[in-house]
Write a structure and sequence with these properties.
By secondary structure, this protein is mainly alpha-helical. It contains seven helices and two strands.
């Protein structure tokens, strides 16, 4: 058995229905349609629900349920009565049962706290994961930029080396061409010098440069024959 210490029903009688309501139900019309009716509706509600539902699960719905139930019959049989609000106090239950509910509530509260702590821990873990992911993405981006910079520097160095090689080859080619041109011109000039008169002159200069002095009773004779010299040169 459970009991309710107080149930407040705030109501109002429309002045247009005062005479009809008092004529049909008397001055204590509220006993018929509110006081007795509320007891009936409370009994119906408690009979249709368990103690767990009445005391905890559906207690927040009792006020509105009672208001709707009373207003429904008043609108049908006593339309002048307007139910403004209903307030039901927490029911009284046996001490042992209440203690069980309190223990259950404590355990439920502990469970809710544990769930909330778990949610907080999961949120913190998720936050740490996002931070780590963001840090990893940042490091990856930095590495990518550094790698791109390194590749650009290597490509620039390679290009510079290629330009230096091309310049060196061009310079060496120019030197080779110049040397070839010089040798060719010298060969052409020497070829133009190879005339009989020039050769004879060079031979005479060579003989003159190789003059020797002989001491003794006999001095060697030297015969300068143009034909011998030409034959010798040929």
């Amino acid at each position: 058995m459970i009991s309710f210490d107080k149930i407040e029903v705030v109501n109002r009688l429309n002045k247009d229905f005062v005479y009809e309501t008092l004529l049909n139900y008397g001055v204590h019309y509220d006993k018929t349609w509110i006081y007795d009716k509320i007891h009936h509706e409370i009994n119906q509600f408690c009979s249709a629900h368990s103690l767990q539902q009445v005391y905890i699960d559906m207690f927040d719905q009792i006020d509105e349920t009672m208001k709707e139930a009373i207003q429904r019959d008043c609108t049908r049989y006593a339309p002048g009565i307007e139910i403004i609000s209903v307030r039901v106090t927490k029911p009284n239950i046996p001490v042992s049962i209440r203690r069980n509910f309190e223990l259950m509530e404590e355990e439920r509260t502990k469970a809710l706290i544990a769930i909330e702590r778990q949610k907080v821990a999961e949120k913190e873990a998720e936050t740490q994961k996002k931070i780590a992911l963001s840090e990893a993405e940042k490091n990856a981006l930095v590495s990518k930029i550094l790698m791109q910079q390194m590749l650009t520097e290597k490509d620039s160095s390679k290009r510079q080396q290629q330009i230096d090689n091309e310049m060196f080859l061009a310079r060496e080619r120019a030197l080779a061409d110049a040397n070839y041109y010089r040798i060719t011109k010298e060969a052409e000039a020497n070829k133009l010098k190879l005339t009989p008169e020039y050769l004879e002159l060079r031979f005479i200069e060579s003989i003159a440069n190789n003059t020797k002095i002989f001491f003794g009773e006999k001095i060697p004779n030297i015969i300068m024959d143009q034909r011998l010299i030409r034959n010798h040169l040929d």
